[in-house]
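To fix ideas, we quote verbatim one protein's residues and fold tokens.
>
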Amino acid sequence: MCDKTSDQEGNAGNAIGVQCPSASLSEIDIPSNVDITAEVRFATNNFPEDEPPSVFMSINGVNAGAVQMDTGSTTITIGKQKWIEKFNGNWDTAINCKPGWKFLSSSRLLYSGYWVPTILTFQSEDGKGNFVDRLKSTVPVLVYDVLSLCPLFTNEQGGTCTKPTWTQTTNLDGLYMGVGFGREQQGGCTPDKNPLLNVQEVNGQNIVGSGNYRLGYILSATSLIWGLTATNIQGFNFTKLTLRQPTPYDDRDWAMATMTVSVNGGPFRQGPLLVDTGVKEMFLSSPDVPDPLLPSFPIDFQIPGTNGSLGGYTVTALDNDGHKSATSSIELTAPSLVDPTPTKPSGPEPVFLNTGSRFFYAYETAFDAAGGNWGTKPLAS
């Protein structure tokens, strides 16, 4: 059954472009009887170096193979052709579902289609060549029939691209999964559409109504661990999140974590932080980005405040006659390049940092959706 009511519009909170000397930490107390958890090992690929991690899945009972998993977005997107031909979807049913859209700012791609309720199953190999169901959820996925490149897109346009570079309406066979939080500015990507926040079965057992799990997940370079326990959060430091403003979708609707960043020796300024498994580049917005750009300038970011209690490092952005690259103070964490945007201190979002995927060479991350906390654990050097 499809819900055709209108989406609650996302509203990204404004970054704060001011000096920020510190930010509060938080502690999580999980009882010993809260022990439901499952590990989903990533399929072999080149994460975190060059591509997102992938997990084995089935969709509506059909083997989907290895599906890329992105923390920089929310919900699964499936192209119309793949939905019909691969997953036996009924298009007449889909178009009676709620219209929806999703916009990816890093690629400037706009997906427009319908939110179709779908059964998603995360699987792992058992060492004998068999796949075992680890997590199962039912959420609306965006089955899209229009894909556009929209360099000038704004949220006010909704699911319509007014000046597309190109638009594709045939041979839409994409499949991509987002499990991030605080991403509502992408278009209706609320917690009800995040498969990891709507799990109904763990290791084949129904957990609906159970009090023995803590909603959240841990990400590392090798796996996803669903369900926080007193044991698996050992070694993590956490910072408190805030509910999305002005009106959260529900009590799982947390805004992004924060960090402070000094660009080119400027003051530390606070803004949202995105640790994104989906891209290898770093994306930076700050009033201190050199304009015009310099051949080299440092970016020192600390999480959540200048004491760096959850981590951080210094990236040097390099530009050699148009050939962009980067170095880092922590081995292997240098992004492939830095994409900087100079902003105005009084603008709506003056400061923002997307670390890119290579952050996972140095840290694991944990999202506590039940209590509104986000944390990191440094890897042994």
Q: What stands out?
A: Confidence is low (pLDDT under 50) at residues 5-22.
